[in-house]
Amino acid sequence: MKTAIKIIIHDALEKARRAGELKLSPFPEVVVEKPKDEKMGDFSTNVAMTLARSERKNPQAIAESVVRHLKNGSDDLRQVEIAAPGFINLKMSREFFMERLRSVVKQRDDFGKTNVGQGVKVMIEFVSANPTGPLHVGHGRGAAVGDVLGRILKKAGYDLSTEYYINDVGNQMNLLGKSTWLRYRELLGKAVEFPDDHYRGEYIKDIADQIVAQKGDEFLNKPEEECLPFFRKYAKDNILKGIKKDLAEFRVTFDNWFSEQSLYENNSVATAIEWLRGKGHVYEKDGAVWLKSSAFNDDKDRVIVKQTGEKTYFCSDIAYHQNKIDRGFKKIIDLMGADHHGYVPRMEAVLKAMGFDEKTFTILLVQFVSLLRAGKKVSMSTRAGEFKTLADVVSEVGVDVARYYFLMRSSDTHLDFDLELAKKETPENPVFYIQYAHARICNIFRAAEESGVVWSSSDAVNLALLNEEEELGIIRAVLAFPEVVEKSAQALEVHRISHYLLDMVSRFHSYYSRHRVISDDKALTLARLFLLDAIRITIRNGFALLGISAPEKM
RNA sequence: GCGCCUGUAGCUCAGCUGGAUAGAGCAACGGACUUCUAAUCCGUAGGUCGUAGGUUCGAGUCCUACCAGGCGUGCCA
Q1: Which positions on chain B have an atom < 7 Å from some protein CB?
Q2: pLDDT tens for each residue of A493-524
Q3: Residue with CA nearest B35 C1'?
Q4: Which of A340, A269, A270 is nearest to A126 (CA)?
Q5: What ipTM was reported for this prediction?
Q6: Which CATH number fits domain A430-546: 1.10.730.10, 3.50.50.60, 2.40.30.10, 2.60.34.10?
Q7: Terminal CA-to-CA distance of chain A, rounded, Å?
């Protein structure tokens, strides 16, 4: 919608230049926004102010000149005003809005689609939690944000792939295998000493239990080294299966699950190191191999091969990202928990060293989640305290609520997730507020059908009857949806969608309480049903982006 | 010490990449169900945008310094 306005203003500027009134070098970027107060107009632009300096004229004079050329341009304009200190406020004709409202209903599920992405290949990697235990609430936030970001990017016209990187090698895997093996021995009556740095969770015992059931004491008298590979793999597979199940229930799916181990098996890690060595980005010191990341803005150089000959986690991550580049992704997004933020500069250094445009590599940090119950912090310790896994939270509050809570705040602020508040079906809980609007609309359609109204979205419906101030406000809000999607995609911010829906829907609730939709005035009834259909479509499409259901009854 | 995030109404948070008189929800107070769903709506009250400077026509937004909270600063992942 705003692009249409941009073009109109652009044309007016062009005419002003030809008339010799403005120099326009350089030609300014036209910024169109919505005025704070809807009474001032439907749109406004500040070009006159931004031009003041380069034109060496005062904004008022520039605005006057632009407006002169605006007036005899477009049928869509109803009124043009200049406001101090130089804003140009535009009011659009009714037809301008009504045409677009019709197109919302025609587009249905596609409403909100844009093409800012222009089919650019994007990879977004998220969650990527070690398969050493079930997902916790923090992972849940990352999962929700990553998943929704993906949906938004797709809607905005990107060619998107989502991926989960599985850290299935290295020290953590060894600890996992060892932990399981120890629990196994314990179950079979051996006295074991369980080290502090091993995985102590109950789930390890469950896995050991399964192994006992399947394999009996087969491993009891074998040496540790012979047992560990089996325990490692068994525990990993088991936990990974659980992670996949939890995510699926949370409505999060991935296009690809990428194994770290595969990078070793096909020699990618070694190849990556050699490649960097060839470029002179790698050197040896103290018996280890270092990446010269400090040459690319990192605080210091980083070890990629330890003295022991083992590769670090960072090392395979280098190979992994080289792999992403090789697969042709032009935009690479990594989601990480904020506790990993120390990792950002070195990762950026790697991408720079590999010659990848730094502007198209983004690490998004998702801040912590504090789980509360009625205002009191829920302990997140591994000890069998209160709810701590994602699955637990989901089963308590439901998927819709859980997702909404993770998505309602900007991801770079800490999030308080209060379980009691989340369960309340009151205005304190915005999910229900939005869902209720949808259910209400569906109910009106049911009532209309029951009373014999035959509604349609045909062009014969006279939208000019939508004259109420509230109606025009809602129409404007509905039509803004594609821009919200676009902005979310550009800023990589999911919470904009939640906030938008809340605002749009509150206009509907307010409208609902002031005006009846179904009345004896048949033409007006049809026009209002048309509007409600558009609102309903927008709620559904918005919820589809958030992965939240839109119930027809509540 | 250094780095990252945050600081906006009593509470939880927005603020559209620098625009017009800083906005919602909750909590408080007062109203609205004989109607298409009251899981709703209407009204009142609530502010030194952490502090101090700077940049300009214009700053909650940008730059600098400081204060407070969180996180990080491994040959862990």
Answers
A1: 2-7, 12-17, 19-21, 23-27, 32, 35-42, 56-57, 70-77
A2: 999 999 999 999 999 999 999 999 999 999 99
A3: A516
A4: A340
A5: 0.94
A6: 1.10.730.10
A7: 34
